[in-house]
């Protein structure tokens, strides 16, 4: 097996808290093992623009507590083209880079896999970095825990005002294809209803449940709506319910981008460190086209191909059932 001498790391797609601890672990694990390491700015765009710099142990000092990503991230259309990939490859070769750690979501992995099939002499390992928790091969993705805690903190505050005014709040949280944040935040905040992309919303049932809540003397109600819920979003739902429920003052809050930011939780700092450490060790061991993930508290390598084709992440049925029972 040919020994690696230089690797690079990039973050791509949506930023997620925990990316910085992961970058730190990649850099320090590489240097500890005698490898040089370059940081690529702005994801695949930086690869095409040759926007990279040599990193040392001090380049990643004091970043464990920072949200976002010190390498910046981007959504890069040219990398989808053969010409863009060729430029990226030439830049990697010119810089002597033989291995690449890409931190991002399924789009990032799709690009990484295509690139690595075209240019197999560059070894590629993916780290699941997305707040959506929707990747096969890792029970948790980087950023999911912090984002869920951020959502919980916001909803707790909204509950105070909802309670003081006998209000019903529709709160929209991130998750276009995955209700992972909505489900866990809903359980943690005692939401009266949780609307998820994974199951159909029957508005009649929702209204019935809210009426029951009022009959049972609930002074406030919180309905969490995942972005990807198919019934039309928080505003439309609120309007539909307003037509039939008069006893609550109905308000809508869209949490939006505040869910992405903030200092990573302990869980995401440790997960980022473990995955970054594992990614570099995988490269050193000659692995390529793999994703490092965490399953049953153990590091696991999954083929990128499998991680992408098995993409459908399934929400836990027992959690959904429990949430319905506990919200009465
Ligand atoms: P998130 O889950 O946070 O959205 P993501 O990694 O899925 O993260 P995307 O914007 O879908 O985010 O993908 C990130 C980048 O990966 C894209 O901007 C593009 O540069 C690259 N990419 C995505 N799909 C492909 C593809 N089919 N071929 C080449 N590159 C791709």
Structure in words:
This protein has about 325 residues and is α/β, with parallel strands linked by helices. The chain has 2 domains: about 5-145 and about 265-310, Rossmann fold; about 145-260, 3-Layer(aba) Sandwich (Rossmann fold). The chain contains 11 helices and 11 strands. It has helices at about 20-30, 45-50, 80-95, 105-120, 145-165, 180-190, 205-215, 235-240, 265-285, 305-310, 315-325; strands at about 5-10, 35-40, 50-55, 100-105, 125-130, 165-175, 195, 220-225, 250-255, 290-295, 300-305. The protein has a 7-stranded mixed β-sheet, with helices on both faces. Strands 7-8-6-9 form a 4-stranded parallel β-sheet, sandwiched between helices. Strand 4 (about 100-105), helix 4 (about 105-120) and strand 5 form a beta-alpha-beta unit. Helix 1 (about 20-30) packs parallel to helix 9 (about 265-285) and helix 6 runs parallel beside helix 11. It starts with 5 loop residues before the first strand and ends with a helix. The protein binds adenosine-5'-triphosphate. The site of adenosine-5'-triphosphate has 18 residues, from helix 4.
């Amino acid at each position: 097996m040919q020994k690696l001498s230089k690797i690079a790391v990039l973050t791509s797609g949506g930023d997620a808290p925990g990316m910085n601890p992961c970058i730190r672990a990649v850099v320090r694990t590489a240097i500890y093992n005698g490898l040089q390491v370059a940081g690529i700015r702005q994801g695949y765009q930086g690869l095409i623009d040759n926007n990279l710099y040599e990193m040392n142990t001090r380049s990643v000092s004091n970043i464990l507590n920072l949200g976002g990503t010190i390498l910046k991230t981007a959504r890069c259309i040219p990398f989808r083209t053969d010409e863009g990939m060729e430029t990226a490859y030439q830049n990697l070769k010119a810089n002597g880079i033989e291995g690449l750690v890409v931190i991002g979501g399924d789009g990032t992995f799709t690009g990484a896999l295509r690139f690595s099939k075209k240019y197999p002499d560059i070894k590629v390992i993916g780290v699941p970095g997305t707040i959506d928790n929707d990747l096969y091969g890792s029970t948790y993705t980087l950023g999911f825990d912090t984002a869920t805690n951020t959502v919980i903190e916001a909803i707790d505050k909204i509950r105070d005002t909802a309670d003081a005014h006998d209000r019903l709040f529709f709160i929209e949280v991130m998750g276009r294809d995955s209700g992972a944040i909505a489900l866990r935040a809903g359980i943690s905040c005692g939401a009266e209803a949780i609307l998820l992309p994974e199951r159909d919303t029957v508005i009649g049932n929702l209204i019935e449940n809210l009426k029951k809540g009022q009959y049972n003397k609930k002074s406030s109600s919180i309905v969490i709506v995942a972005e990807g819920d198919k019934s039309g979003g928080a505003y439309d739902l609120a309007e539909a319910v307003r037509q039939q429920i008069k006893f609550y003052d109905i308000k809508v809050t869209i949490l939006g981008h505040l869910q992405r930011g903030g200092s990573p939780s302990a869980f995401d700092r440790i997960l980022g460190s473990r995955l970054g450490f594992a990614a570099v060790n995988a490269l050193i061991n000659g692995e390529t086209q793999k994703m490092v993930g965490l399953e049953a508290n153990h590091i696991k390598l999954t083929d990128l191909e499998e991680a992408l084709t098995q993409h459908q992440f399934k929400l836990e049925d027992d959690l959904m059932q429990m949430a319905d029972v506990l919200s009465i």
